[in-house]
Structure formats: structure tokens, C-alpha cells
Amino acid sequence: MARRGLNQRDLRATHSMLSAVFFSYAFFLCCFARDTITYPSVAIGVDRQESLVSAGKRFELGFFTPEESTISTIYLGIWYYKSNPRIVVWVANRNSPLPDDGAAFAITDDGNLQISHRNGTSYWSTELASTSNPAYREAKLLDSGNLVFRDTNNTLLTTILWESFAHPTDTFLPGMKMRENLKLISWESKADPKEGKFSFQLDEGRFVILINDYIVHWEDVESSDFFNSERMPDGMANFLFNTTGSVQNPNFTNKTPPPSEYNNTRIRLDVEGELQYWNFDTNWSLQWFEPRDNCSVSNACGNFGSCNLNNMLACRCLPGFKPASPESWRNGSFSGGCSRSSAVCGKNDTFLRLKMMRVGQQNHKFKVENDTKCREECLNQCSCQAYSFVKGGVNKRRDRQPGINMCLIWTDVLQDLQEEYSYSGPDLFVRVSIADTELKAKSCKPCGINVIPYPLSTGSDCGDPMYSSFHCNTSTGKLSFKTQNGTYNVATIDQDTRTFTIQDKDGDHCNSSTGGQMREFNLSLPFKMIDFKPWCDTVAGNFGSNISSQGVVEIVIGWEPPAEPVCTSPADCEDWPNSTCKNVTENGKMRCQCNSNFRWDDMALNCVQDVDGHSGGSSRKKKPLSLIVGVTIASVIVLSSIFLYTCILMRKKAKRRGN
């Protein structure tokens, strides 16, 4: 009896021990996530909220709904483990969202990895050839973030059948191979992982961001050999190039760093077409991104169009050029660029000197003695659009010996022009017609990209002294306007409307409740304030500025038409035909007074012939007597014919009644 009781106690102890082991195993299975899917029973269900977690707990795979989504669409994706907010790096069914939680992710009977709905619909599949041995296949989530689907039939060699790294969505991770056929495609929106319109890829050895697969949005190329540009940083380029054995970065000569240095790095293509380079230390931080503004977009203002982030209207044509499509330009579409107002290639050519510019890559470069030789070389080629002389020792490069002067020649259209870009680059000389830059006699020389029409004046040698309120900074090419309130940057000048715009920082105006009211701005004749345009915090997506401080106001100022030009000798009136230097106002000022039978036309800025007290060169010209007599006779004939026809018609009607 004692022995039988002892056996029962032993059985109870054994049962308790087995229960504890089973509970511990079940606890282990529940609390320690798996990283592998096998056939046939192991699957991930939406309704069970299951997931795979990589062995080192770096990445997690499961079903999710985008955090900013307003509808209950479900996707299978991979994200950084326990990231908050969730950082998704890959999406399987990005173009086929699940409508509800009735789906699972598993290995199917034909040996494919598939997202299947309980109604039998497949929402995503690896689409491999079917196999009779699906039991040998497994899917494993690695610590690199790569989902690997492989065949384990061969115990000595595992065959990778498919991997997510070869089919990325919008994110590039360490271990991926940047090849010509690899492409990142942006999400449609922050709430929708559907394929968007932007793609990033390697195209003929250069990295590009495309819109709808054919429009270049941004490309990683240098502006020119000596004009600075925002290229992809070396670390990011090495990350992309050195993860592949087939493509090498020709600009990188150091030892290839081990892949572990990039473990906490990722590259992402944003929904707005922005390529982002992220690095993780204690938190994720954005190291670099492009295009960083509207001027960084590929050829933002089109051919011969210049971009300026500091102006409300970012694009404008170079002096001597006009919009190729004025209507598109007015509607804010600048990609069509600008065309020449006059043909060049002759004795009437000159060069517009532009400073602080960015410009696309030149077509030719060669050694030259001095800047005169470089200028002559451009003038001797009708195809030459611009040149730049780089003095030895300036912007030294590894491929150029110090002390060698270089001449850069552009024979194609000028692209990617941007003003106020760099203080260290050389000057760019753009070929233009003299007639297009010196619009009127005594016009001042262009200041950078600004043409200064008469009567506006930057000094005593040009313009009209009454309008001498402008200053040109020859070192930067920037034009400013001096008033009683201070000195302000000139953004644009419009000769046709006789207006120009200046910029004034005005945070109070943007923050005040009187933002819609006209502000006061003290001006004296011949200038008057026309309008003001508050430009408060920059709105994302607008083709505008990088100024996003408290606010900027662009003030539109007009000028009164000028009187006859001031002169001190007859020589000063040689530029004004049919005028003589004399004082008829008796105020001590000599002016180029129009000769007899001529009068000053302040619109034409010239002396025009006077006929019976009217300007003979304008629309106000009196009509010739012969024209008036001719019109009168024709009118009499027409009226007489109508009267005669009416009389005949009435007589015929009267005869019919009599009959």
C-alpha cells in the first residue's frame, strides 16, 4: 500500500513537471516571435494580428494600415521593429490593398509565397513556377530587413528563389544592389503606399529622379567644373555604389568601408519626389535631401531661364531673352524656358556679365592665356552661347594643375541657371545682342540679370539724375533701391508697365490682423507706390522662395514718365535725334529740347514729328485730309444707294396694291 501511494505521488509530480514544461514552451512560443514561415500550417493572419520579427529584433513583418489613412485599407509590409511612428520600408500589395481582415500570408500548395483572402482572391504572390515539394520552401525575415524566400531541399546549399531586396518600394536599405534595373518608386501619398509618380534609379551611370518614368525631376550631375552644385554627398554615393560588385563609383578612391558602417542608414524617395538620406544614432536624422527647393529641380526655369529663390516669382528670362510661351509663363509654368529676342553672331554682340550663378555643364574647356582670348574664342563661334574665364588657382581641382587658366565654352542652350547661388564661383558671360540690353540711349549697363531702362539711373553717367536712386553692387550683381526708409533689394523691373518691385522684411505685417491693408511707404517724385504683395511663410509646393521667416513684402513701385534728357553740351544730345541742348525753362537746367516741328513723347522717350500740334510718331497723329475726304465721299455713296434702293422697292409695292 505504501508503495502504491508513492507511485501515485510520483505520477502527480511527473504530470506537474510536464505541465510546467508545456506551459514554458507555450510561453516561449507566445512571447518570443518567430522570423520564419514554413509549409503547410504556419501562416500570418490579419485577424490574429500576427507578425514575423527578425532574429536581432531589427525589423518586423506584418499587416498594417497607414497611420495617416482615413479608410480601413490593409497592407503587408516590413518596418523597423517597434518604431513609433511606424517606419515602413517595404510593402508587398501596395497596389492591391485588402478590404478587410479576412486574409493570410502563407506558402501555398504550389510553392509560392502569397497573400490570400478567404474568398479565394490572391492580392499578392511571388509568382514562381509551381513545385511538387512546397514543404521544402520557407520565408525568413533577416536582420537586414530582407524577406528571403528559399528552397531548403539541398542540405548543403540553400537556393534563394525570391527576395524583397530585389523588389523594393520607396526605400533603399544596406545590402541592396543598385543596378540599372532597380528602382525606388514613391508612395502615392503619406496615407497610400500605391505607386506614385516619382521614381529613383540609375540611368546610364547617373542617378536620376523621374516623373512618370520619362520627365527628369532631378539628376546627380555637377553644374559645371567650376560652378558649385549640390551633388549627392560621398557617404550617400558610396552607400549606393559600394553595395554592389558590378558598379563602382569612379570618384571614390578610398578603401571600401565594411557594410556594417551603413547598418543604420537608409535612403527614401518621398511622396513629393524628394530623395532623402537618413542616419540613425539615438534617433533618425535627415542628413541630406534633394531637390531641396524649386530651383534645385532639373532645369526649373527652362532654357535660358534663371531661378532666384529670393524672389516671389522665382523664374525670369535673362536680358535679351523672352518667354518661349508667354501664356504658359503667365500661368506659372516655366519649363518651356526662354528664347532669344534677337539673333546673335555679328559685330553687334556683347556679353552680359552674371555673378553668383549656377549653370549646367559646359561643352568645351581648354587652356587659355587670358580672359580676352577666351572672349574672342566665343565671339568667333556663332554657336557659342556663353563663356567663363577661370584664372589659375581659383577653384582648384584634382584634375587641373595650379596656375593654369581655363576657358569654359557653352555651345548649347544654357540650363539650370540660378542666381545668388555661390560667392566663390567665376563670372558667367552670356552672349546677347547690344540692342536687347541697351534698350534706349543713355540706358545704364545691366546689373547682373537686371536691365536698367532709361530714365532709371545708377550714377551720373547714365539715366536721368531725377531717377538716380539705384545702386549696383558690381561684386555681386545685385541691384538696390534707396529711399528715405532705407535701401532695399530690387527683385524685378518691368519697362513696359514702368514699374519695379523691391523686397522688405515685414514680420509684423504678416502676423498682424491688418494684413490685408495697404502699408505706408514714403516715396518722393518721380516714384510712387503702386501695390504691395505680402509674402508670408512659404507654402509647400508653391514655386517660390526659400525665405520662410516671419515674412517678406514685395512692394511695387512705379515711376513717372521723364521730361527731356538733361544735358551740359550739344554732345549729350547726340543720342536724342532732332533735339538741341538749351535751357528754355529758365531754371538753370539744360535739356535736350526738341527742334521745331518735333515734340517730346514721354512714352517713346524720343522727339517725334509734330503735325498740327500732335505727335507725328504716335497713335495720336492727325489723320491726313485726303483720307478724311475719301471716307466722306464713300459714306455719301453708300447712303445714297441705300436711299435709292428703298424708293424703288416702295414703288414696286405700291404698284402691286394698285393692281
UniProtKB/TrEMBL annotation:
Enzyme kind, highest EC tier: transferase
EC number: 2.7.11.1
Pfam family, one: S_locus_glycop
The keyword Signal belongs to this UniProt entry's keyword annotation: yes
Lineage top rank: taxon: Eukaryota
Listed SMART domains: B_lectin
Residue ranges annotated for the Bulb-type lectin domain, each copy included: 37-162
GO annotation terms (biological process): recognition of pollen
Domain Apple residues, every copy: 345-433
Reactions catalysed: L-seryl-[protein] + ATP = O-phospho-L-seryl-[protein] + ADP + H(+); L-threonyl-[protein] + ATP = O-phospho-L-threonyl-[protein] + ADP + H(+)
Gene Ontology molecular function: protein serine/threonine kinase activity
Keywords: Disulfide bond, EGF-like domain, Glycoprotein, Kinase, Membrane, Signal, Transferase, Transmembrane, Transmembrane helix
KW ATP-binding (keyword) present: no
Record domain EGF-like: where: 291-327
Transmembrane region(s): 625-648
Listed name of the protein: non-specific serine/threonine protein kinase
Native species: Salix purpurea (Purple osier willow)
